Amino acid sequence: MNVIRIPAKVGRYVRISSTATTAQYLKCAIDPCLNGATCIADLCFCAPGWTDVHCGTDNYTICVHISNKDVDECASNPCRNGGTCSQTINQYSCACPIGFTGTNCETNIDECASNPCMNNATCLNEVAHFACVCLEGFNGTLCEHGENVAVMFDIVTLMNAIQILVCTEVHAWRELECSRVRVCKDMQAERAKQYVNLNRHIDIDECASSPCGAENTCLDGINSYTCLCRAGYTGSCCEIDINECVSSPCQNNGTCVNLVGSFQCNCGPGFIGTLCQIDVNECSSQPCVNGGVCIDGINRYNCTCPLGFEGTNCEFDINECLSMPCLNGGTCGDEINRYKCTCRTGFNGTRCEENIDNCVGIQCQNGGTCEDGVNSFRCICPPGFTGDRCQTDIDECLLSPCQHGGTCHNTAGSYVCNCPTDLTGKNCDLCI
């Protein structure tokens, strides 16, 4: 089987399995991709804004894992034995119940590893605790109690302390194991004799002085004791505070503070939670206004503003009139993502850039020519005519142009002189 790796988005790879050759894979015989997607090796790389393996249908077995979204690593329930899963970016952590450890809480802690059972008892490891199977003649949680009998006593005064020889029955009277133990202080020998009785059991309680501390459990033994420490402490007398920060439980650069039997995470900006595992969503307060889209970051957010708005929260309406787009004295009115020009009389257009042709529909008479102005027009009249439309014929005879007694007759746009018999010319100013 050939395995082809093709570089994909976000620094990952796309694996394509098939019996086809590399050359056959790299060629898309039929492009199944839609919406502007790119086809490589019959795999669709979608354009921004599109998803779905399609952008077409793949006829091969394709395993694609390309995503910019954070995968919920806790979705598969990786923590075993009742562990609590905390999901973070590209990883998870398991908080294990008492008695279990390991990345996935898969390991049952062997409580028998410390050999807690005494007097050659057998230790049985169980979930979060152990049980001791005692030899005959012993009892107690740790098989710490034997049937002690004072078969003989040897009272010795030593530095105001009394010692006696105490023997422990082993295997039901068949064997005795003896040791000297200190039973009382500041006691006179005669009073000690009264205390020791050949017919009663003597069990010296080494836990009476509370060597393990008030909050821990002391198990009395034969000339010994064992401390069962509360959570967060260790040592023969539970005197050592376990530093829970050694395992670096705080995530996302949180600072761990070791406490008595516990720890506390001081989270950096943008994170909360017991382990600083939760990224605060700064977009939850909806800071972006005027239709802005909020994009959450680490201890920050960014607003993508719609056209016409700007500012950290898209709170400012952009004034499109600042560029003075209106011409020819037009008045600009700012609107959302646009402007509107109110034009002076005689102009129109989006920016008042067009001078209205006032000659449209105007007919100058008698051969006059219309000349457009600003919200006006003017008829340029030919000689002999006047008026706003050149509609009036000028009476040139009013100026008495005919000389030497010639008679003036007004005509359209001109005049005619009737001259005496011995004169001629336009104005009767020439002799014949």
Descriptive notes:
Residues 70-106, 108-144, 203-239, 241-277, 279-315, 317-353, 355-391, 393-429 form the EGF-like domain. Disulfide bonds join 96-105, 134-143, 229-238, 267-276, 305-314, 343-352, 381-390, 419-428. Keywords: Disulfide bond, EGF-like domain, Glycoprotein, Repeat. This is FBP1-like protein. By secondary structure, this protein is mostly beta strands. The chain contains 2 helices and 41 strands. Strands 14, 15, 16 and 17 form a 4-stranded antiparallel sheet that branches. Residues 1-26, 57-68, 148-178 and 180-201 have low confidence and may be disordered.
Shape: rod-shaped
Distance between the termini: 125 Å
Helicity level, as a percent range?
Answer: under 10%
Q: Figure out the total of helices.
A: 2
Strand content: 35-45%
- Low-confidence segments: 1-26, 57-68, 148-178, 180-201
Largest sheet: 4 strands, antiparallel
User: What structural category arises from helix and sheet content?
Assistant: mainly beta
Mean pLDDT: 78
Task: Label this structure with key terms.
2 helices, 432 residues, mainly beta, 3-stranded antiparallel sheet
What's the SSE blueprint?
Layout: E1 2-7, E2 13-18, H1 22-26, E3 38-40, E4 43-45, E5 61-63, E6 84-88, E7 91-95, E8 100-101, E9 107-108, E10 122-126, E11 129-133, E12 138-139, E13 145-146, E14 148-149, E15 156-158, E16 161-170, E17 175-185, H2 189-195, E18 217-220, E19 225-228, E20 233-234, E21 240-241, E22 255-259, E23 262-266, E24 271-272, E25 278-279, E26 293-296, E27 301-304, E28 309-310, E29 316-317, E30 331-335, E31 338-342, E32 347-348, E33 354-355, E34 369-373, E35 376-380, E36 385-386, E37 392-393, E38 407-411, E39 414-418, E40 423-424, E41 430-431
Antiparallel strand pairs: 1-2, 2-5, 3-4, 6-7, 8-9, 10-11, 12-13, 14-16, 15-16, 16-17, 18-19, 20-21, 22-23, 24-25, 26-27, 28-29, 30-31, 32-33, 34-35, 36-37, 38-39, 40-41
